[in-house]
Amino acid sequence: MARSIWSGSISFGLVNVPVKLYNAVQRKSVQFHQLHDSDRARIQQKRVCSADGEEVPFEHLVKGFEFAPGQYVVIESDELDALAAQKTRLIEIEQFVDLDEIDPLMFDQPYYVAPATGAAKAYRLMVDAMDEARKAAIGRFVLRQKEHLVALRVKDGQLVMETLVYADEIVSPASLDTAPAADAEVSERELDIARQLVAMLSGPFEPSRYRDDYREAVLGLIERKVAGEEIAIAPAPREPAAVPDLMAALQASVDAVAKRQGEAGKPAAPKAKARKPPQSPRKVAQKS
User: Cα–Cα distance between 96 and 161 in angstroms, integer?
Assistant: First the structure.
């Protein structure tokens, strides 16, 4: 069961709604440790002074900002503490906006916002009012001594809060070293086939269809190696040949999608009764 990471209130106008905050995303990645190749012992990371090569105890570490090559200004911890945002228990709403006004590039980390004990009515009132007006709330709150800009929106009758990056943190497309595509010209025929390809590949978004194939492959590799299996490295796949003609590439793509969709619509041929497959290494690992 998920546990709340923060509790406080949403404040807008003179209304306070007591709430709890929960992580809405659990990042999944495969973690590796660095080992010595000869004896498989863990490698320790040491803090070593670049001047004398000596290991530096933690209590002698200070924060420094490099303002010029090789020149640092030291910032004391209490100086940073004096600048840190004061801890509050409020998500202070500053305005309500249309959700599509927020550039998706600004979204950072999502959280679920749930009502605290006794706040169900006030919470429901806020959810219904925002949902009916189709608005998102923009506000600020402090988490772990850092003030965050946030957007709250309604999803399936639940408040979701996402921290936002600040506008000056978004890289401007004008700074890219690639020439803008607006100068390129396309023919009406090319555009027609591109539209056809987009239409053929269009459909409802189903997030569960998409898996982290690389993570699954790494976990499978680990399970096989734990089981003592000898791993054969497959040769790298060939790079796809460049298509000399954009029009030919578009038409070939349309033809391939049409063929795939046509085959998907055909009834499957009856299969011979197969033997029960052995239990997968992943299930074995989960049970052990």
Answer: 13
CB under 8 Å, gap of 24 or more: what pairs does 248-252 form? 250/190, 250/193, 250/194, 250/197, 251/193
User: pTM for the whole thing?
Assistant: 0.74
Alpha carbon distance, N-terminus to C-terminus of the chain? 23
What residues have CB less than 8 Å from 251, skipping those under 6 apart? 193
pLDDT for 80 equals 85
Residue 95 · residue 138 · CB < 8 Å = yes
Query: Any bridge partners for residue 137, and if so which?
Result: 96, 152
d(CA 192, CA 54): 68
Query: What is the fold, at CATH topology level, of the domain defined by 6-26+84-168?
Result: Ku70; Chain: A; Domain 2 (2.40.290)
DSSP state of 4: -
Instruction: Work out the pLDDT band at 273, boundaries 50, 70, 90.
Output: very low
